[in-house]
């Protein structure tokens, strides 16, 4: 068994998918891999995600140390930016491999 953030996983792949798996986490990380985005900018890149789902996924990724949330409170309105942490940036090769594999599927396995 492997433990990460008070959760146990039976294998390393399950741990990895537990951190980045699901419909929206990979999309969030892909959009943050090359830029810092505000919440609404991030939401525009994924128009079908609900606000609640996006908010929950962002909180989970932040708790896991993959993204950081920076709040600017110097003047209204409140400004919040999201970016990858140094730990999160280690996922960039994984994200690139997922993109490459997805392109392969589209090119070779589509109807």
Can you walk me through this structure?
The protein has helices at 12-20, 25-32, 39-45, 51-63, 86-89, 92-109, and strands at residues 2-4, 7-9, 37-38, 67-72, 79-84. The chain is built from 6 helices and 5 strands, in the order ββααβααββαα. It has a single domain, classed as Arc Repressor Mutant, subunit A.
In short:
The chain is of the alpha+beta class. The chain has six helices and five strands; from the N terminus they run ββααβααββαα.
Entry keywords:
111 residues; alpha+beta; globular; single chain
CATH level-1 class: Mainly Alpha
CATH superfamily label: Winged helix-like DNA-binding domain superfamily/Winged helix DNA-binding domain
Q: In which range does the helix fraction lie?
A: 40-55%
CATH topology call: Arc Repressor Mutant, subunit A
List the helices and strands and how they pair.
Blueprint: E1 2-4, E2 7-9, H1 12-20, H2 25-32, E3 37-38, H3 39-45, H4 51-63, E4 67-72, E5 79-84, H5 86-89, H6 92-109
Antiparallel strand pairs: 1-2, 3-5, 4-5
């Amino acid at each position: 068994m492997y433990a990460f953030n008070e959760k146990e996983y039976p294998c390393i792949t399950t741990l990895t998918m537990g951190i980045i798996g699901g419909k929206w986490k990979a999309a969030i990380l892909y959009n943050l891999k090359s830029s810092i985005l505000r919440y609404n900018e991030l939401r525009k890149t994924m128009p079908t995600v609900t606000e609640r789902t996006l908010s929950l996924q962002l909180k989970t990724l932040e708790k896991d140390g993959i993204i950081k949330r920076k709040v600017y409170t110097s003047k209204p309105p409140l400004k919040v930016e999201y970016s990858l942490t140094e730990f999160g940036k280690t996922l960039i090769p994984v994200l690139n491999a997922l993109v490459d594999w997805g392109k392969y599927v589209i090119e070779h396995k589509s109807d």
